[in-house]
Design goal:
Helix content is 47%, strand content 9%. The structure holds thiamine diphosphate and magnesium ion.
Length: 358
C-alpha cells in the first residue's frame, strides 16, 4: 500500500538523519576542514564565559519551569550557544538583532540583564517587558534587539525591514536576522530574500539549522539540505558553518557582516547546530534517539570543546575555568532569586502597551 511504503521511506530517512546528526563534522568537510586562526586567551575566555552563562541560565530556567514558576511556553537554546555568541562577538552598536521564540540566549548575548530576562520568564514586574511578554517575546530596544517572535518566519520579514531602515537612514548598521531550519521554505522568507537582494540590503540571514522543526527532521521537511544555497537563484551568496565551533562562527560572522556593511547586499550563513532539549519544555523528544543526543553532546559540545582548546593551548588553568563556572552559576542564581521575588505586574498595567482596535 502506498501509505505503508511512505512510512517505510520516512523511517529510512530518519535513520539516515540520526546517523548524520554530527553538525560539526559535516561543516568541517564543507569548509575544507578550514580551522580559523586561534584567538587570544582573553578573546577565547570571553566567548567561553558567555556560552557558559547562557547554558547555566537556561538550566536554571528549565528548573524553574519544572517548579511551576514559569508559565506558558519555554524553548531552551542549550546546545546552540556557539551560534549567537560567535555572531554577537562581531557586531557594532548600530547593528540590530531579531530572532524566533528561542530567544533567551540572544537576549543575554545582546547584553540584556540576566535578572530582567529571568523575571520576564516568571512574568514579574522586574522583567524586561514588565512581565507581559514572557519567554517567546523578549525585547530590548535599547540593545537593538527586536524580539522574540512566536510566528515561525515572521522575524525574517521584520529583519529585512530592519536592514531596509539601516540603509535608508544610512546608519551603517547591519541586520542580523536569525531563524530556524523549519522556517526556510516559507513564502514570506523567500519574498524577503527577493527584496533584500533586489535592494541590496545589509542583512545577514543566520539559519540556525538544529536539524529539527518541532518533531520533524530537516530531511522530512525540506527538499534541499543545503540551506545556505536556498537563495542561489536570488543571487544571495551563502556559506555553511560549523555552528558548534564558536571560533568558526566568529570568523564566518565577521566576514559576512563586513561584507554587508561594505554595501554588497545580503548574505546567508547556515549554522549547523543542535538542540539538546526538546522543542519546548513540554516536548519529550520521542522523534530522535537518546544515543543521537548523547553522541552530539559528547563529541561536539561547543563549551566542552572550547574548554579543551583553552587547556591544550595553555591559555587557561582548570582553576580559572572553574572560577568562571562559579561566577556564571551565581549570576543565574541571583537572576532566579530576583525573578521569584519581583512583584506581579500591577493589574492597572493590563491594557498599557496593548494595541486594541474597535
Ligand atoms: C507560522 C507558524 N506555523 C507554525 C507554527 C508552530 N511552530 C512553532 S515552532 C515550529 C518549528 C520551527 O522550527 P525551526 O524553524 O527549525 O526552529 P527551532 O524550533 O528548531 O529553533 C512550528 C512549526 C508557528 N509558530 N508559526
Ligand atoms: Mg530547527
Amino acid at each position: 500500500m502506498a501509505s505503508g511504503s511512505s512510512v517505510k521511506s520516512t523511517k529510512r530517512k530518519e535513520t539516515k538523519a540520526a546517523k548524520s546528526a554530527s553538525p560539526g563534522k559535516k561543516a568541517a568537510k564543507a569548509n575544507g576542514a578550514h580551522r580559523p586562526p586561534p584567538l587570544s586567551a582573553e578573546e577565547r575566555l570571553d566567548l567561553y564565559r558567555q556560552m557558559l552563562l547562557i547554558r547555566r541560565f537556561e538550566e536554571r530556567a528549565g528548573q524553574m519551569y519544572g517548579m511551576g514558576l514559569i508559565g506558558g511556553f519555554c524553548h531552551l537554546y542549550i546546545g546552540q550557544e556557539a551560534v549567537v555568541v560567535g555572531m554577537q562577538a562581531c557586531v557594532q552598536p548600530q547593528d540590530s538583532v531579531i530572532t524566533s521564540y528561542r530567544d533567551h540566549g540572544h537576549m543575554l548575548a545582546c547584553g540584556a540583564e540576566p535578572k530582567e530576562i529571568m523575571a520576564e520568564l516568571t512574568g514579574r514586574r522586574g522583567g524586561s517587558s514588565g512581565g507581559k511578554g514572557g519567554s517567546m517575546h523578549m525585547f530590548a530596544a535599547d540593545r537593538k534587539f527586536y524580539g522574540g517572535n512566536g510566528i515561525v518566519g515572521a522575524q525574517v520579514s521584520i529583519g529585512t525591514g530592519l536592514g531596509f531602515a539601516a540603509k535608508y537612514r544610512q546608519s551603517d548598521g547591519v541586520s542580523l536576522t536569525y531563524f530556524g531550519d523549519g522556517a526556510v521554505n516559507q513564502g514570506q522568507v523567500h519574498e524577503s530574500f527577493n527584496m533584500a537582494s533586489l535592494w541590496s540590503l545589509p542583512v545577514v540571514y543566520v539559519i540556525e539549522n538544529n536539524k529539527y522543526g518541532m518533531g520533524t527532521s530537516i530531511e522530512r521537511a525540506s527538499a534541499t539540505g543545503d540551506l545556505y544555497r536556498i537563495a542561489d537563484e536570488l543571487k544571495i551568496p551563502g556559506r555553511q558553518v560549523d555552528g558548534m565551533d564558536v571560533e568558526a562562527v566568529k570568523e564566518a560572522g565577521g566576514d559576512a557582516i563586513a561584507r554587508c556593511r561594505a554595501g554588497n547586499g545580503p548574505y546567508i550563513l547556515e549554522m549547523l547546530t543542535y538542540r539538546y532539549r526538546g522543542h519546548s519544555m513540554s516536548d519529550p523528544a520521542k522523534y530522535r534517539s537518546k544515543e543521537e543526543v548523547a553522541r552530539v553532546r559528547s563529541e561536539q559540545d561547543p563549551i566542552t570543546n572550547l574548554y579543551a582548546r583553552l587547556m591544550e593551548d595553555s591559555q587557561a588553568s582548570e582553576e580559572t575555568l572553574k572560577q568562571i563556572d562559579t561566577e556564571v552559576r551565581a549570576v543565574a542564581a541571583d537572576a532566579a532569586e530576583f525573578a521569584q521575588n519581583s512583584p506581579e505586574p500591577d493589574p492597572a498595567e493590563l491594557y498599557s502597551d496593548v494595541l486594541m482596535q474597535a
